[in-house]
Design goal:
56% of the residues lie in helices and 8% in strands. With 343 residues, the protein is of the alpha/beta class. The chain has 17 helices and six strands. The relative contact order is 0.10.
């Protein structure tokens, strides 16, 4: 049971949503809100409390009877857009409960995500004032910084499934078929609310002026521009790219919000390390500053992988406490591997 002080300190909006979910009998909403509380406690440095709350959630879910959602998922998969010629699905559906969503971001970037989520939650109220919520978002930045994870986070926090476009199936060598496939995907997103993810969208949205294959590129870019201009699906559209300079300039104007996911700074690197290793027994003291200095300039994905590699090595060594030396060794190995790939 929460003490009066803790209840007073909890975010008022989350409390309202918890009460509303209880009143509506919405278990899925309660699960999402409980996860948000766990995440908030972890971000404020209450790692042990967050772990205990997370364990309670897992025990509760394990005791529940299987949710009657299998038939619904199967039905939804059958309704995914298909390529006309080969009958392959043009997208992959990721249910909400399977989404990764923990992110460590600079405060300014966190506010951009939170604003999108808040506008989606208040979309009906905004429309009563003649205002439209942000629905189309472009995330750009270096590889491994969390662009795709950002789309998953938006799907998790809005309660929407994530539909990821399969560009390997979408692109066709037949005249006009790629554009038709793209239209089918947008039509499916309009029928069923989701976060439609165009991951690495430069694959289909590269600048028409810089391409040698002007005809086919122009057709699919023109189709995308038109679909973006007319986008009125009930969910969100999220596009990501490593190469924002390669995108067609006209595309940027179609997005409601465009922002960068940067590489983690020293504060974010330390938070990522601590969060990833929160369930691992650590030797004391750990010189976090030394680890952060070695990882400066690394992507969030590399930071997390280095911590996970060190933790796995400790478990394989007999479950011993994780040491500073083992962490440094994991960082060194990963950086050597990364340097070899680039060479």
């Amino acid at each position: 049971m929460f003490s009066r002080g803790k209840v007073a300190a909890m975010n008022a909006d989350i409390l309202k949503r918890v009460v509303r979910a209880i009143a509506d009998g919405s278990q899925s909403d309660l699960d999402r809100l409980a996860s948000k509380i766990v995440e908030a406690e972890r971000k404020t440095g209450h790692g042990r409390l967050a772990d205990e709350l997370e364990a309670i959630l897992k025990q509760s879910k394990a005791k529940r009877p299987p949710a009657p959602s299998t038939a619904e998922i199967e039905r939804t998969l059958k309704e995914l857009p298909m390529s006309r010629r080969h009958g392959e699905t043009l997208a992959t559906l990721i249910p909400t409960e399977q989404l990764e969503h923990h992110m460590v971001l600079p405060e300014a970037v966190e506010r951009r995500f939170a604003r999108i989520e808040a506008e989606y939650a208040a979309r009906d109220r905004l429309r009563t004032f003649g205002l439209q919520p942000r629905k189309t978002i472009l995330l750009y930045g270096p590889p491994g910084c969390g662009k795709s994870l950002g789309a998953k986070r938006l799907a998790w926090n809005t309660g929407l499934p994530l539909m990821k476009v399969r560009f390997d199936v979408l692109i066709s060598s037949f005249f006009g078929e790629s554009a038709q496939n793209l239209r089918s995907i947008f039509a499916a997103a309009k029928e069923k609310p989701c976060v439609l993810l165009l991951d690495e969208c430069d694959f289909i949205a590269r600048s028409r002026t810089n391409s040698k294959d002007i005809g086919e590129v122009s057709r699919i870019v023109n189709a995308l521009l038109q679909l973006m201009e007319e986008y009125d699906a009930p969910g969100l559209l999220v596009a990501t790219t490593n190469l924002e300079s390669a995108l067609d300039p006209a595309l940027f104007r179609r997005f409601d919000d465009v922002f960068s996911i940067p590489l983690p700074g020293p504060a974010e690197i330390e938070k990522l390390l601590r969060m990833t290793l929160s369930t691992v027994q650590m030797e004391r003291p750990i010189a976090w500053g030394q680890l952060v200095a070695k990882l400066e300039g690394s992507s969030a994905a590399m930071v997390v992988k280095a911590a996970q590699d060190a933790a796995k090595a400790a478990v394989l060594a007999g479950g011993k406490a994780l040491s500073q030396d083992r962490l440094l060794q994991a960082v060194d190995e990963l950086q050597r591997h990364d340097a070899a790939k680039r060479a």
